[in-house]
Specification:
Layout (H helix, E strand, L loop, with lengths): L1 H31 L4 H26 L3 H26 L2 E2 L2 H22 L11 H24 L13 H33 L3 H13 L1 H12 L3 H26 L9 H17 L7 E2 L1 H23 L1
Helix pairs in contact: 1-2, 1-6, 2-3, 2-6, 2-9, 3-7, 3-8, 3-9, 3-10, 3-11, 4-9, 4-10, 5-9, 6-7, 8-9
Length: 318
């Protein structure tokens, strides 16, 4: 099990560095070809922050580990919402724009509810996520991208042109190394996480909800903490809300298109937690200081997450 643990850590390092290299290389390539910052933000950066979850879930789905697929997405979203916003809000109360309060947070709530409905077959009658469900989620993801595009287009901003001196060889080297790191890292994490679960006698669900979810959320954690330290609230909360929407609409759609995902109702409690946490975030915008996630609210989010995670692990070990 020690070897598997070491390989999981190596997998996470490759995953995070791979995403970083790929984003850097792709951004340089886009700027060198005078592609607008808007297009770069909508495609390269958005994909890059979701790359760890996407790669891990694609591998897990292909290898038919449905509990890891679901655990990673639900666990990552709960980790983002409760753990990261909890930590960030304790560092510095997060001021939130009106558009985030009235649009992005409700969209993230909608994503969680759509996931709950589709996975339980409340509408189409089939338990789990079929390829039809995947197409529905992907369509919603494309609609969300269009919404972001319209939002950003309405924000008039000027960006100064930057001359890119990096050679094409260096740029493509970043991209290729990044993709290789992502693929190898994702494979190492899934295979060895399954091995650890087997050795410990715990379920793949718990491994997905805890270790894998936390590991694949490291980019969001680092981004939001740095943003909070710089008192950049827009990036701190926008990164989290956007990631939660991407995880459900994009990553679950791709995973279910690779292979239909079996769903166990034991995950419903975790989805309810996600829905409840998102509702709490919305309500928090109107309690205390308006349109601000106060420290006491952040502390409550963090406490709930630690308590629930401890409960999950203890239940599993009984």
């Amino acid at each position: 099990m020690l070897l598997s643990s070491i390989l999981v850590v190596i997998g996470f390092v490759l995953l995070i560095k791979g995403a970083d290299w790929m984003v850097n290389g792709s951004t340089l390539l886009a700027k060198k070809n005078k592609i607008p910052d808007l297009a770069i933000g909508l495609t390269i950066v958005a994909f890059g922050t979701s790359a760890p979850e996407l790669v891990v879930n694609t591998v897990a789905s292909y290898e038919n580990h449905s509990d890891i697929v679901l655990g990673n997405v639900i666990g990552s979203n709960n980790f983002n919402l409760f753990m990261i916003l909890g930590i960030v809000g304790l560092i510095f109360p997060i001021a939130v724009q009106s558009s985030t309060v009235w649009k992005e947070i409700p969209i993230s709530l909608l994503a969680a509810l759509v996931f709950l409905v589709l996975a339980n077959g409340y509408v189409l009658g089939d338990m789990g996520l079929s390829r039809v469900d995947g197409i529905i989620l992907l369509s919603l993801f494309l609609a969300f991208l269009f919404y972001i595009y319209k939002q950003m287009k309405s924000d008039v901003s000027t960006t100064e042109e930057v001359e890119i001196t990096a050679s094409n060889y260096k740029i493509w080297g970043f991209i290729v190394l990044g993709l290789i790191g992502l693929v190898i890292g994702g494979k190492l994490i899934v295979d060895n996480a399954v091995s650890i679960a087997s050795d410990l006698g715990v379920s793949e669900k718990i491994i997905g909800l805890t270790i894998i979810a936390a590991g694949t959320s490291l980019p969001e954690l680092m981004t939001s903490v740095v943003a909070a330290l710089k008192k950049n609230s827009d990036i701190a909360i926008g990164n989290i809300i956007g990631s939660n929407i991407f995880n459900i609409f994009l990553i679950l759609s791709v995973s279910s298109l690779v292979r239909p995902i079996e769903f166990s109702t034991v995950f419903n409690t975790d989805i309810y937690l996600l829905v409840g946490g998102t509702v709490f975030l919305f309500v928090a915008m109107f309690t205390g200081k308006r349109k601000t996630l106060d420290r006491w609210e952040s502390g409550l989010l963090l406490t709930v997450f630690i308590g629930y995670t401890t409960y999950l692990v203890l239940q599993e070990l009984q």
